[in-house]
Amino acid sequence: MDKISLVFWQKGTKEKADAQGFASFLDEWWQQCREWLAWPLKALSPENAPLFMVDLLADECDVQRYSGEPESLYRLRVKTAYANAKDAGTKAGLERIWARLGLGYIEISEREDAENWDIVRINVTESIISEKPELLKIIVEKYGRTCRRYEYTTVANIDLNILSASVEHFTDNMTAKLEL
User: Fold this and answer.
1) Which domain of life is it from (predicted)?
2) Is the dihedral of CA 43, 46, 49, 54 positive or negative?
3) How confident is the model at residue 105 (pLDDT cuts 50, 70, 90)?
4) Which end of the chain is more exposed for a tag (fewer CB within 10 A), N or C?
5) Which of 69-83, 86-100, 104-118 has the lowest mean pLDDT?
6) Per-residue confidence band for 10, with pLDDT thresholds at 50, 70 and 90
7) Does residue 121 lie in a domain region?
8) How many domains does the chain have?
9) 83 contact partners, CB below 8 Å, separation of at least 6
């Protein structure tokens, strides 16, 4: 932010010194006013607010912190609660919720079986199921479709080394005839 510079038409050093002092006083005062005005915005931002304020915002958004949840993930869930609620109940919405929370790969397939049409298969990386099973349960309960059964399948990333080599083959076919 630029400092205030006052141009005075008066001559002399005393007036210039007074003008510079007044300008620095106005700079400091305006900075303090900006901090006062910005405080409510900081207090209502789940990213910067004290944890007790995040808890109040979470209560307002119907987000509960589960046992062992990292604070950063909790703040992110509170921040995205309204957008997540808006996207709830659809396949594309669940994929967007997954992306907002930064949970990685997800693939959702519905109605694959004609007999069990209410099954929704969610294919995710194995680390999500092993590291954050409680979060997965909360996401499906809050933002999934009602009257559906969910099945989880996992994808595991493995390093695969394949050696390719040249294979040559030569055949020679000979026949022998015996005459008596």
Assistant:
1) Bacteria
2) positive
3) confident
4) C
5) 104-118
6) very low
7) yes
8) 2
9) 96, 100
Sign of CA dihedral 62, 63, 65, 66: positive
Residue 170 in contact with residue 101, Cβ under 8 Å?
no
Q: Which of 1, 74, 11, 72 has the alpha carbon at shortest distance from 31?
A: 1
177 inside domain:
no
Backbone angles phi, psi at 151, to 5 degrees: -120, 140
Q: Is the pTM of this model over 0.90?
A: no
- For tokens 């595991």, name the residue: 156
DSSP letters for 87-148: HTTSHHHHHHHHHHTT---EEEEE--SSSSTTEEEEEEEHHHHHH-HHHHHHHHHHHS-TT-
Task: Report the CATH number at residue 112.
Answer: 3.30.70
* Chain mean pLDDT for the chain: 82
Assess contact for 89 and 151: CB atoms under 8 A: no
Q: Is residue 72 part of a domain?
A: no
SS3 assignment, position 8? coil
For residues 155 and 34, give the distance between their C-alpha atoms in angstroms, rounded to a whole number: 50
Tell me what pLDDT residue 119 has: 85
Tokens linked to 71? 């604070």
* Chain centre to alpha carbon of residue 59: 20
What integer is the mean pLDDT of 88-100?
A: 88
